[in-house]
Amino acid sequence: MDCDDTNNAINPNALEIPNNGVDENCDGNLGVVDNDNDGFNSSVDCNDNNNTVYPGAPELCDGLDNNCAGGVDEGLTFTTYYLDSDNDGFGSTTSISSCSVTAPNGYTTNNTDCNDNNANVYPGATEICDGIDNDCAGGVDNGLPQFTYYQDNDNDNYGDSNFPITTCSATAPAGYAAAQADCNDANAAINPGATEICDGIDNNCSGSADEGLTLTTYFLDFDNDGFGNTSVDSTTCSQTPPVGYILVGGDCDDANNTVYPGATEVCDGVDNDCANGIDNGIAVITYYRDFDADNYGDPMDSLQTCSTLAPAGYVLDNTDCNDANTDVHPNTLEIPNNGIDEDCVGGDLVIGVNNIEAEFGIKVYPNPAQNFVTLAGNLNDNLTVTVYDLQGKQITTHAMLQASNYMLDITNLKPGYYMLEVNNKATHARAFTKIVVIK
User: Fold this and answer.
1) Is the Cα torsion angle 50, 56, 57, 60 positive or negative in sign?
2) pLDDT value of residue 352
């Protein structure tokens, strides 16, 4: 159809002259050409330089409005891609949205990487002992064997149990040890593996000092006599005794260096030899009270001592029959017939009918005697001879047969004074004589 019938140069078959403002071929486009030959000239083509862009073209994922509908990539399916900075196939939360079915370079569809700056850290990675959550499971070094180490300040390979750390490393960190129970972490010579030595310290951390060592007990020797006081001792592992102590005990008086086991016992009222007895083993002497100082003692008043020197007022003799009278003792002169026993023979000397020689005509000799006393005279079967001690106790009695003399055996008598009695059983006559027995 002719769009301008006044101009024979304008008709549907006329040659369109571009860009002159005249629609020569009556197609409705004034001077517009189709530069990209996509069938749409620049008047309707929204991008006449791209033959994939024209009205009704299929929309492509190319960031262009291919169908000239006024939108870029509209109607296409969009996918979210996540930045994968370390290219480990797992992205961070930084994302872009794209209609491309292929992830852009440096992006991925997975956004579970917990460290997008480390290619060794991602979900499913092998967890290694490095203090990092390698597998993004929410735990550091999870699933790995754990080892406990203890602070070792003195570097003796034994740590302080009070300061532990736990790690997956099979090698102890610097300043730590796998073994614990160090009881002194400031001294490398003290630990559970140390050798116990005699120093009063628990070297091997067993809880006791010097255990297992040979202990020796020493005793205080205050008086330096070579014997110590058993009640004051010191037990130690040292082979050297403490000052003032020795190995041997048993001293019963550690303040007196003359008193010790084995010392010579002397008569001093002290247990010199520590044998649990005072003056033991020394002969004991009995002394008798000599009140009247006549050198004859009272047999009923005595004391015993080991001293060879008589105590004041005492003597060895015990034959005084009156210790209150200095004129009465065995060596004094007997006054006959005065009723006093001056010579302590057991009675007053009676001269007359009661004298053996006067009464019976029998002589008694020797006197003093040692083993035998002879009675000589007119003896007969009615006569008996009896010996008494000074207390009147009968010692022996014998019958005298018809003979001219009789020998009385006094061998068993102790030295001293005795009374000799002759008795006639027929007439009941009696007479006495004092005899002295010597040895």
Assistant:
1) positive
2) 42
Same domain, residue pair 248 and 310: no
Q: Residue 19: inside a domain, yes or no?
A: yes
Q: Collect the ranges in the chain with pLDDT lower than 50.
A: 351-354
Considering the domain architecture, whether residues 409 and 365 belong to the same structural domain is answered as yes
For residue 356, the SS3 value is helix
Residues with Cβ within 8 Å of 173's Cβ and at least 6 positions away in sequence, in order, are 149, 165, 167
**Residue 271: closest CA among 244, 284, 254, 253:** 253
Q: Each residue of 273-292: pLDDT tens digit?
A: 999 888 888 889 999 999 99
Nearest C-alpha neighbor of 96 from the set 87, 86, 107: 107
Helices (H) and strands (E) in the chain, counts: 1, 19
Residue 118: how many CB atoms within 10 A of its CB? 15
CA 123 vs CA 90, 115, 126, 138: distances in Å: 8, 10, 9, 10
Number of domains forming the structure of the chain: 5
Per-residue CA distances from 255 to 168, 222, 225, 250 (Å) = 70, 6, 9, 13
**Containing domain of residue 52, as a range?**
33-76
User: What are 62-72's pLDDT values in tens digits?
Assistant: 999 999 999 99
State the average pLDDT for the chain: 90
Task: Report the SS3 class of residue 188.
Answer: coil
Q: Is 168 a domain residue?
A: no
Q: Do 360 and 420 belong together in one domain?
A: yes
Tell me the per-residue pLDDT of 116-148, one tens digit each, with 9 for 90 and over. Answer: 999 999 999 999 999 899 999 998 988 899 999
Do the bridges between strand 79-83 and strand 95-98 make them parallel or antiparallel, or are there none, so unpaired? antiparallel
Backbone angles phi, psi at 289, to 5 degrees: -65, 130
Asked if residue 273 lies in contact with residue 262, where contact means CB atoms within 8 angstroms, the answer is: yes
C-alpha 42 chain-centroid distance: 109
Whether residues 366 and 386 share a domain: the answer is yes
DSSP-derived secondary structure for 269-310: SS-TT-SSSTTTTSPPEEEEE-TT-SS--EEEEEEEES-SSP
Position 157 in a domain: no
- Please state the pTM of the whole predicted model: 0.43
Question: Do 253 and 310 belong to one domain?
Answer: no
